[in-house]
Amino acid sequence: MKTKNMTISAILLAIGLLLHYIIPGIPFLGGMKMDFLLAMMF
């Protein structure tokens, strides 16, 4: 059961990391982008 939770957490973290690199920055906020890595952790 613990390995299942760790696997799901790792997959969500990887998705968040990919989204963090793919999504461009918002120009009118000075190039800031949403932190999907942080969002996917919770």
Give an overview of the whole structure.
The protein has 42 residues and is mainly alpha-helical. It has one domain (2-41). The protein has helices spanning 2-22, 36-41. The protein starts with a helix and ends with a helix. The model has no long low-confidence stretch (mean pLDDT 75).
What are the SSEs and their pairings?
Elements: H1 2-22, H2 36-41
Summarize the structure.
With 42 residues, this protein is mainly α. The protein is 64% helix and 0% strand. The protein is built from two helices and no strands.
End-to-end span in angstroms? 19 Å
The largest pleated sheet is described as: none
Number of DSSP helical runs: 2
Uncertain regions spanning at least 5 consecutive residues:
none
Q: State the total count of DSSP E strands.
A: 0
Number of domains: 1
Shape: elongated
Residues in helices, as a percent range: 55-70%
* Strand content range: under 5%
Structural class: mainly alpha
Overall pLDDT metric: 75
Radius of gyration: 13 Å
- What string, H for helix and E for strand, traces the elements in order? HH
Task: Please name the defining characteristics of this protein.
42 residues, mainly alpha, 2 helices, 0% strand
